[in-house]
TrEMBL record:
CDD domains reported in the protein's UniProt record: SCO
Protein name from the UniProt record: Electron transport transmembrane protein Sco1/SenC/PrrC
Family: Belongs to the SCO1/2 family.
Swiss-Prot/TrEMBL keywords: Membrane, Transmembrane
């Protein structure tokens, strides 16, 4: 297994343990104001009355993010029929590179159900803090290269990697490890689902 994948999975496991240890002391989640793939403002009220399954990542991620989104897409095919499925949300941690159209193209590669969200640096920082997401930018030789459209070249973002199941009022219901199998994700979600 590549070193980057191992490091990302370790960061996800540590993030999950930290969240589970402190979730009763410090609330996880909260209001957010972001932008969807069609550049429309999106807040938690858009999903009022619906559960959401939230994952934080970025479109230039080479390993854990695509694996997680593929896992979610497969898990949804395994959920019991007649149950209302949570709205899957992908929130970028890389707003400087991930424009609205980028997150839309990226999420559609995995499932048309997954809604990609981005925003300003301040908006992303605020929602990441609310969900206790940890991230660290690692620069490389191309980090300061201007791509010609105001965006910078390649860099990596090491980040915690978990799935947040939120209820219809945007309150945390469960935290799922992102490195679970599709069947494990489906099993973990099923007890929380309501009939349509």
């Amino acid at each position: 297994m590549p070193t980057l994948v191992i490091a990302s999975l370790f960061a996800g496991a540590v993030g999950l343990q930290t969240l589970l240890a402190h979730r009763h002391q410090t609330p996880v989640g909260g209001p957010y104001a972001l932008i969807d793939s069609t550049s429309h403002p999106t807040t938690q009220t858009r999903f009022a009355g619906r559960q959401t399954l939230i994952y934080f990542g970025y479109t230039h991620c080479l390993d854990v993010c695509p694996l997680t989104l593929a896992t979610v897409a497969q898990a949804y095919t395994l959920l019991p029929p007649g149950m209302q499925r949570p709205v899957p949300l992908f929130i970028t941690l890389d707003p400087e590179r991930d424009r609205p159209e980028d997150v839309g193209l990226y999420t559609r590669r995995f499932s048309p159900e997954i809604i990609g969200l981005t925003g300003t640096v301040a908006q992303i920082d605020a929602v990441a803090r609310a969900f206790h997401v940890t991230s660290h930018v690692t620069m490389d030789a191309m980090a300061n290269h201007d791509m010609g459209d105001g965006r910078k070249g390649d860099y990596r973002i090491d980040h915690s990697s978990v799935l947040y199941l939120m209820d219809g009022q945007n309150h945390l219901q469960a935290i799922l490890p992102a490195d679970s199998s599709p069947a494990a994700v489906a099993r973990a979600l099923t007890p929380y689902l309501a009939k349509r």
